[in-house]
Specification:
Blueprint: H1 12-25, E1 28-29, H2 30-37, H3 41-54, E2 57-62, E3 65-70, H4 72-88, H5 93-103, E4 110-116, E5 122-129, E6 134-138, H6 146-158, E7 165-170, H7 172-181, E8 188-192
Parallel strand pairs: 6-7, 7-8
Antiparallel strand pairs: 1-3, 2-3, 4-5, 5-6
Helix pairs in contact: 1-4
Length: about 190
């Protein structure tokens, strides 16, 4: 998972993760933290105070300035965050993407395409091959997205004349749900990954 630290709106996790990573390398001043993690002074103060209170970060005065460094507890928090990120960014989603990429090879394959439908929508697909008129959707393991995948695949398969098949790559319970949704659809197939 890549964290876009420069975004205007971020989750709290991203802010703490940026700060913990920054402090894992060395002792850092508040102004450096503000710049590296794109924080204003009051947010930086609030986050640093919470981390100091929790024992994850230690503050030490050097001259007139406060410097911050990671404690052993903070290092454990950083490791836990890294493990969480690797779980989120790893199989089944990564396996599904790899499987789709292997199946959609060729000179005419377009990655991350937007296909127009007769409904006037532009639908994002992971891979599109105009040569054999096929598209692939890589389904993330989030059951709340099932309706979205269903709507996308239905529009793609029934709402245009340039697709012969839509493959949805999914795993686990998401795959089972999608298979049920598309059991009577000749164009959409769901593939285990």
């Amino acid at each position: 998972m890549s964290f876009s630290i420069g975004r205007k709106y971020r989750g709290r996790f991203e802010v703490y993760y940026c700060l913990l990573r920054l402090l894992s390398g060395s002792t850092v001043k508040k102004t450096h933290i503000m710049n590296a993690c794109n924080l204003n002074s009051s947010i930086a103060r609030e986050v640093l105070n919470r981390l100091v209170e929790s024992g994850a970060v230690r503050a030490s005065r050097q001259g007139r300035e406060l410097h911050f460094h990671l404690t052993e507890r903070g290092m454990m928090a950083l490791i836990a965050a890294e493990v969480f990120i690797s779980l989120v960014d790893s199989p089944p989603y990564a396996d599904c993407r790899r499987r789709a990429q292997e199946e959609f090879t060729g000179e005419d394959v377009v990655e991350n395409a937007y296909l127009g439908t007769s409904y006037g929508f532009e639908v994002p697909v992971s891979y599109y091959s105009p040569g054999d008129a096929s598209a692939a959707i890589v389904a993330e393991a989030d059951s709340s997205l099932v309706a979205f995948y269903y709507a996308m695949a239905s529009m793609l398969s029934g709402g245009n004349s340039y697709l012969n098949n839509v493959t949805i790559f999914a795993s686990g319970s998401l795959k089972d749900m999608l298979e049920d949704l598309f059991k009577d659809n000749d164009i959409v197939r769901v593939v285990e990954c």
